[in-house]
């Protein structure tokens, strides 16, 4: 940590979304502090205030997680350099500062927006291919309307309804709000009494266009705690015409969901800010996908949303504080339809927005989307669905019974709390292989096609660098360390390897494994291994609880959902013990299944009724009050597990025999304090 033994006047500076922090003397430029911590901030002009690429934001409020209060006045006032920049280039966005000319005066949390980062976030939520029945709740109808005359005094709306009934047998339309009514007469006259009409659920006119207009669009949105992904869909064909993703800007208020709920608790009215920024991000995504597809954003007439319960509530403008403590009560667990304008979305003025139902206080509409896309309720096989994130959502069952729970895996799988961890961006290590004999490693990074041991790698990787390791890389490197006998079943790094390999080095009273030596040394520390063990043990324990409740010993099919599940190798997930033993041929990625569920709800109105009915039948299990959770958790800390035999895995992989000989060994000889304490207890 930067600033060990610092003076009292030193200020604590925390950068989000990386979470890196350190203490610096008052008067230190923000950019200098960022560079000292290895924070990813772009700057082309060398800190002269010319390029404007190093812009940052101050996150305001109480941050109990860091033990500080962050305020704008904890930075120097607007500088002459910033004033010159605005005079020459244009006004900075509200709240933004140039980090090169802004100095630290007190404890502060600094948010680095995506456009100021050298290595832009890669949001990998591909829409994938999936057969979806196209039967949307909004349909287009073209009709010709009888002109008015002195002999027929009926209003234009009445004659439009008569034409729709005569031509399309639409006999039950009984709703048309004022905003549509205001458009009918201009549209009829501009279209020479021919119009195209959008009808919702065959009973309500929501839009009218002059003449023939057949292409309207829908938007399916997956609001994750880390990323927000949107897919623009042509409603009549179901074709995804554009997709885009952005980082969830709520990260500046907290890396994980409970941090954001805590922010609201500590800052009354903070939920308004969290709601505002996520709605702004969605509007930004709308702009991206519409520009990519060449579509007018006001041709979007419907949108559907999936997200965890906190994201679900914040999108709807509901204070999420009740989700921060037992009994984790939802404001609503039902599917909800509102005007898109009520969510401040810049779409067609009469567009509808539908949120899928939530399952429980920690199992949200995103899990409902996974269930809708995977349909375990129509299968005979015992199926396990897992969506791995900061909080893992788990569904187990088949056509006879479904159960669901969540498990607090923490942010380690996304690169947080890992010494060299980072999110999935260019320069992040994502694939790792270790030679079990030499202990030498080779790897691949995002943005480079070559493995590190291939000729030309260093030249090819120079453009992106080797900057850290992301979630899939962390899973693989620790699993490979286990297969190569660098760590034992308890996750302890074997310091004896240092005698014949410079890959294992002393780090205080523990050992680390050096994955890469370069501009940034990438190492896997003993604490990194522990963080992954804690996360995977929590996930496995949650799964085991559901298996116990359903009296299930064997799982026949496993599907890993989400961006993380889409990019990890299922073999390594099982070696690590993230998931129970299963025939590897029956373990696969479900891709962005939550997003697929949102698309199904967008394009197939029967899908909405289906998932709303299924959700009511899912039995919810609260892991926090289950007495056996801790027992399962402790056993699952071992790799792959302390007791479970993993017979299917052993047939496919040469797993090491159990070896506790490295436990307690520390650099310099002797035993660790933990080992001595255990011996005292035994004696």
Structure, explained:
The chain is an alpha/beta fold. The protein has five domains: 106 residues, Beta-grasp domain (Ubiquitin-like (UB roll)), CATH 3.10.20.30; 73 residues, Ubiquitin-like (UB roll), CATH 3.10.20.880; 139 residues, Domain of unknown function (DUF4445) (Nucleotidyltransferase, domain 5), CATH 3.30.420.480; 142 residues, Nucleotidyltransferase, domain 5 (2-Layer Sandwich); 141 residues, no CATH class. The strands form seven sheets. It has a six-stranded mixed β-sheet, sandwiched between helices. Helix 10 packs across helix 13. It is globular. The N terminus and C terminus are likely disordered.
Architecture per CATH nomenclature, i.e. the level-2 architecture of the largest domain = 2-Layer Sandwich
Assign a percent range to the helix content. 25-40%
What's the average pLDDT?
88
Radius of gyration, in angstroms, nearest whole number? 28 Å
How many helices? The count is 18
Kindly provide the name of the CATH class of the largest domain: Alpha Beta
> Biggest sheet, in brief?
6 strands, mixed
**The CATH topology of the largest domain:** Nucleotidyltransferase, domain 5
Global geometry: globular
- Could you tell me how far the N terminus lies from the C terminus, measured between alpha carbons in angstroms? 38 Å
Low-confidence region ranges = 1-7, 670-683
Lay out the secondary structure:
Blueprint: E1 11-16, E2 21-24, H1 30-37, E3 55-59, E4 61-63, E5 68-70, H2 80-88, E6 96-98, E7 108-111, E8 138-144, H3 156-168, E9 175-176, H4 178-190, E10 194-200, E11 204-210, E12 217-223, E13 227-234, E14 240-247, H5 257-266, H6 270-293, E15 300-307, H7 309-315, E16 336-339, E17 352-355, H8 365-374, E18 383-387, E19 392-397, E20 402-407, E21 428-434, E22 441-445, H9 457-461, E23 468-469, H10 471-483, E24 504-507, E25 510-516, E26 522-524, H11 526-549, E27 557-561, H12 562-567, H13 570-576, E28 587-591, H14 593-603, H15 605-617, E29 619-620, H16 629-636, H17 647-652, H18 673-682
Helix pairs in contact: 8-14, 8-15, 10-13, 11-16, 14-15
């Amino acid at each position: 940590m930067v600033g060990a033994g610092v003076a009292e006047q030193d200020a604590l500076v925390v950068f989000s979304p990386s979470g890196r922090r350190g203490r610096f003397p008052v008067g230190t430029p923000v950019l200098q502090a960022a560079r000292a911590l290895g924070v990813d901030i772009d700057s082309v002009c060398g800190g002269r205030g010319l390029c404007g690429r190093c812009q940052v934001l101050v996150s305001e409020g109480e941050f109990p997680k860091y033990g500080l209060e962050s305020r704008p006045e904890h930075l120097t006032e607007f500088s002459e350099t910033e004033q010159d920049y605005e005079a020459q280039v244009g006004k900075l966005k509200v709240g933004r500062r140039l980090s090169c000319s802004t100095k630290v005066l007190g404890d502060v949390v600094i948010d680095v927006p995506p456009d100021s980062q050298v290595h832009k976030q890669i949001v990998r939520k591909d829409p994938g291919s999936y057969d979806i029945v196209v039967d949307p709740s909004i349909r287009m109808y073209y009709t010709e309307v009888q002109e008015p005359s002195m002999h027929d005094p009926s209003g234009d709306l009445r004659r439009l309804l008569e034409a729709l009934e005569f031509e399309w047998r639409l006999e039950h339309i009984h709703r048309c709000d004022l905003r549509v009514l205001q458009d009918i007469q201009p549209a009829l006259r501009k279209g020479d009494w021919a119009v195209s009409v959008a009808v919702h659920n065959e009973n309500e006119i929501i839009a009218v266009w002059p003449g023939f207009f057949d292409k309207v669009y829908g938007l399916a949105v997956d609001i994750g705690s880390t990323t927000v992904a949107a897919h623009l869909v042509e409603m009549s064909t179901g074709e995804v015409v554009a997709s885009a993703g952005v980082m969830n800007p709520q990260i500046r208020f907290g890396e994980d969901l409970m941090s954001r709920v805590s922010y609201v608790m500590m800052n009354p009215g903070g939920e308004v800010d969290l709601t505002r920024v996520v709605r702004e991000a969605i509007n930004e995504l709308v702009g991206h996908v519409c520009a990519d597809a060449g579509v007018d954003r006001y041709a979007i007439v419907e949108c559907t949303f999936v997200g965890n319960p906190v994201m679900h509530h914040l999108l709807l403008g509901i204070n999420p504080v009740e989700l921060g403590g037992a009994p984790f009560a939802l404001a609503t667990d039902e599917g909800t339809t509102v005007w898109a304008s009520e969510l401040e979305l810049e779409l067609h003025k009469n567009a509808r927005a539908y949120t899928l139902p939530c399952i429980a206080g920690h199992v949200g509409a995103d899990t409902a989307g996974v269930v809708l896309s995977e349909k375990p309720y129509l299968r005979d096989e015992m199926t396990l669905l897992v969506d791995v994130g900061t909080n893992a959502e788990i569904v187990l069952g088949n056509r006879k019974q479904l159960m669901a729970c969540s498990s607090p895996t923490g942010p380690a799988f996304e690169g947080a709390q890992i010494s060299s961890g980072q999110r999935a961006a260019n320069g992040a290590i994502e694939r790792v292989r270790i030679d079990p004999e030499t202990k030498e490693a080779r790897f691949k990074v995002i943005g480079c096609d070559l493995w590190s041991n291939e000729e030309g790698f260093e030249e090819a990787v120079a453009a992106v660098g080797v900057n850290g390791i992301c979630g899939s890389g962390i899973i693989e490197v620790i699993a490979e360390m286990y297969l190569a006998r660098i760590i034992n079943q308890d996750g302890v790094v074997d310091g004896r390897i240092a005698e014949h390999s410079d890959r294992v080095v002393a780090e205080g009273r523990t050992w680390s494994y050096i994955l890469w030596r370069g501009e940034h040394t990438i190492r896997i520390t003993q604490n990194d291994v522990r963080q992954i063990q804690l996360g995977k043990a929590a996930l496995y324990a949650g799964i085991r609880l559901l298996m116990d409740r359903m009296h299930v010993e064997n799982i026949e099919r496993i599907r890993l959902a989400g961006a993380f599940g889409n990019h990890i190798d299922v073999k390594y997930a099982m070696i690590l013990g993230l998931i129970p033993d299963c025939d590897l041929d029956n373990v696969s990625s479900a891709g962005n299944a939550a997003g697929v569920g949102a698309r199904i709800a967008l394009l197939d109105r029967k899908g909405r009724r289906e998932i709303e009915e299924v959700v009511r039948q899912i039995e919810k299990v609260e892991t926090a009050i289950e007495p056996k959770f801790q027992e399962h958790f402790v056993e699952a800390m071992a790799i792959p597990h302390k007791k479970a035999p993993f017979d299917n895995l052993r047939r496919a992989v040469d797993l090491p025999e159990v070896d506790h000989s490295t436990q307690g060994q520390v650099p310099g000889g002797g035993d660790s304090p933990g080992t001595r304490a255990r011996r005292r207890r035994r004696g």
